[in-house]
């Protein structure tokens, strides 16, 4: 799995690099593979079109990666300029090069909060309702660089189950992104899996935002088929990150575009942020320090 992920990351960075123009006015948006690629591209196209008009960029390119690490490496190497990812992905970058990117904005949910939850789900017909029911069973994670799909569960679960994750469950593995993970749970490949959601709103809609909400909206999930087994403490919403390799004028135009996006095109903003979200708010590295510390403790980088 690790070798496959590294090869995918190298291929992705090479692809982005091959498209890298000498003209600094070409902007490149990275997509992390947490959702079906075609859906991610479709939900981002309005952002690309708007950015081109607002910044005067000669071109805005969209680069979908097969996994989170591809975008992380692209941001570190300067072949990706903009990406919206979870806090653990930002932490991975900050731990390797604190000057590579700036986290500039995050979104607020339908309730005005700037956080979400790691949500563990199981098939409803499995009879699994609690963490105790999962002892000795298979647990799936979304991606090793996912905040809600890996980092936070590995920090929070041991405190609740009274044992290391790898000792409590018979097996753990990765689903290849949040959408694929939930589909793997439905297919019986895992007894339960960790994904993410706002935790507010209607259950039948997959809450108001997050992966479950997106899957319901696309017709890929009926919430009657699953149950929520566990919910994490509140996680800070992931940042919109901008590469510090962009010149100051272009970086300012990019930030101004995203700040205005919820007011000028709410539908585009909600598609890009995966739910019924309301606005962007300014953030800085201090907003994610607890996640950086947690990643350093659990993963090491």
UniProtKB/TrEMBL annotation:
It comes from the Bacteria. GO terms for biological process: organic phosphonate transport; transmembrane transport. SMART domains: PBPb. Keywords: Signal. It holds the Pfam family Phosphonate-bd. Residues 26-272 form the Solute-binding protein family 3/N-terminal domain. Residues 1-21 form the signal peptide. Belongs to the phosphate/phosphite/phosphonate binding protein family. PANTHER family: PHOSPHONATES-BINDING PERIPLASMIC PROTEIN. This is Phosphonate ABC transporter substrate-binding protein. The gene is phnD.
């Amino acid at each position: 799995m690790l070798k496959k992920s590294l090869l995918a990351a190298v291929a992705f960075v090479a692809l982005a690099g091959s498209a890298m123009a000498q003209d600094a006015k070409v902007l490149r948006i990275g997509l992390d593979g947490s959702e079906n690629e075609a859906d991610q591209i479709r939900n981002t196209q309005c952002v690309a079109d708007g950015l081109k008009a607002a910044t005067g960029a000669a071109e805005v390119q969209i680069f979908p990666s097969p996994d989170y690490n591809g975008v992380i490496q692209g941001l570190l190497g300067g072949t990706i300029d903009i990406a919206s990812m979870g806090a653990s992905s930002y932490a991975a970058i900050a731990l390797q090069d604190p000057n590579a990117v700036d986290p500039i904005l995050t979104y607020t949910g339908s309730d005005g909060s700037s956080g979400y939850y790691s949500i563990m789900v199981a098939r409803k017909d499995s009879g699994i309702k609690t963490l105790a029911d999962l002892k000795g069973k298979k647990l799936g994670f979304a991606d090793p660089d996912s905040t809600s799909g890996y980092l936070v569960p590995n920090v929070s679960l041991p405190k609740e189950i009274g044992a290391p994750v790898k000792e409590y469950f018979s097996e753990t593995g990765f689903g290849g992104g949040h959408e694929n993970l939930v589909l793997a749970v439905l297919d019986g490949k895992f007894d339960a899996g960790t994904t993410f959601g706002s935790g507010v709103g209607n259950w039948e809609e997959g809450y108001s935002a997050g992966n479950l909400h997106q899957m319901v909206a696309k017709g890929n999930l009926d919430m009657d088929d699953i149950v929520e087994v566990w919910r994490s403490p509140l996680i800070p919403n992931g940042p919109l990150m901008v590469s510090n390799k962009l010149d100051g004028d272009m970086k300012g135009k990019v930030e101004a575009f995203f700040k205005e996006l919820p007011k000028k095109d709410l539908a585009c903003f909600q598609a890009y942020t995966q739910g019924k979200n309301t606005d962007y708010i300014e953030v800085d590295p201090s907003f994610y320090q607890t996640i950086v510390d947690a990643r350093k403790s659990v993963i090491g980088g």
